[in-house]
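Example 3.2
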Amino acid sequence: MQLRVYYEDTDCGNVVYYANYLRYMERSRTEYMRERGIDLAHWRQRGTMFMVVDVKVKYRAPARYNDLLDVESSVTEITSASITFSTMIYRHNRQLLVQGVVRIACTDSDGRIKRIPSEIQSVLQ
């Protein structure tokens, strides 16, 4: 996924505010699932949701206003109730800026952990 850094994404030093990288990772995970036919809104209506339960981020270099970024996510682990994604964020010239690992848990509409539906597991494995 590509995205452009806008002024609203930056701090007073014109670099991307550190928490915004989490938003970029979220978008990339959502697009990853959408590209594989997993519509999160559809699953939410059926009582299946996903919530972030663990995040690790390594900041290597700053992105700046107007940079074009490549955000690449992949699934690194699937358990019966969670999915772990690895996300790399590069400046468009392939300079690595951020590495992230995010684990999301499958829950019901009340936030209780549940098994990932087989239809989702089969697409992601």
